Amino acid sequence: MIFAIGTPVNAHFRPWTYDWALKPDALMISAIDFLSSPRTYKKLKSKGIHDLLAWDGSIICDSGAFSALNRKSAVTIQLEDLYALYEEINKQDPNILKITLDFPDDRIIENYKKLYPLEIEPVVPFNKIELIDSISRITDDLDWLFIGRLVPLMRQGGDHISRLSLIFDVFREKLKERAFTHKVKLWALGVGAPSILPFIRSLVEGCDSSRWRVTGSNMILLPAGGERGVGNRTKWRGTHHRIDDQNERHLVIKILKDLDTLSGGFENIDHSLTYNQQPKLIKGSFEINLPSIGELITKIREHSDLVTVYELELLLRTSGNLRLIFNYWSALNFSSTD
Hints:
Blueprint: E1 2-6, E2 26-30, H1 32-35, H2 38-47, H3 49-53, E3 58-62, H4 65-70, H5 79-92, E4 97-98, H6 108-115, E5 123-125, H7 131-138, E6 144-148, H8 150-154, H9 160-177, E7 185-188, H10 197-200, E8 206-209, H11 211-214, E9 219-221, E10 227-229, H12 246-263, H13 293-302, H14 309-318, H15 320-332
Parallel strand pairs: 1-2, 1-8, 2-3, 3-4, 5-6, 6-7, 7-8
Antiparallel strand pairs: 9-10
């Protein structure tokens, strides 16, 4: 299975550039980063997409429809602009997977037809499976089918694993019915957080997730587990029991020690983690007599069995870069629960 890490094109923090860090199978980017920023588009043309991302591996470029719909200010993606962007990307690297514009619903097939000369991949919302019939009339030589709108579906509660599994089975049956020339690979868009990836990896050939970055402002992810709040804006504000299970505590310490050792020290991840600096306080907190960052790091290195949940939280909420690399590490160690 291919697992892609989602990232903004202009992200300053890029864990895949560290020679000691794990690398994803691919990066997932959004066309909206180029279409909403002439400056970024200019960089693409002058530097090239691989140099722009500091990445020489595989890339998937989403149309940006999902991002446009979820932004606070209204953003409209014009098909003509997306076509021109995909033309530019094709000139630079024809192997980049490019995804059709899947909005609005009544124009998905029309958009696919117009973009088809650029060797793009179709997107079918999970509840619009009948669109496969129209796609089969345009081409019988399909490599990938991207399934969309799965993230809102997962948030409906209940046994989302069974729901997803049923959807993928139905899609495979439909594809078999339309008799494509070879087996079509399924990609589950946005469904790749550590908590679900161990299950998803056996159900589809590809998936992606930006959860590692989206949660980085105030959360940490646990491999094959959940999420824990450590920042100023977390809904668990006011409690020191955000990592209350001992197994999770040991896991967090293990990841931090791995990162410290492999990076040559936390300060190489974030220069703000200097020895005498004080941890960041939660807004409105009455905490006093806090240990220094150096004392926290020394305790993790030399006496990790004595490190408390509260001390882990102090360290993690001090550095956004540390939270991001922690989440990135968790995202790519989804099968590790040691």
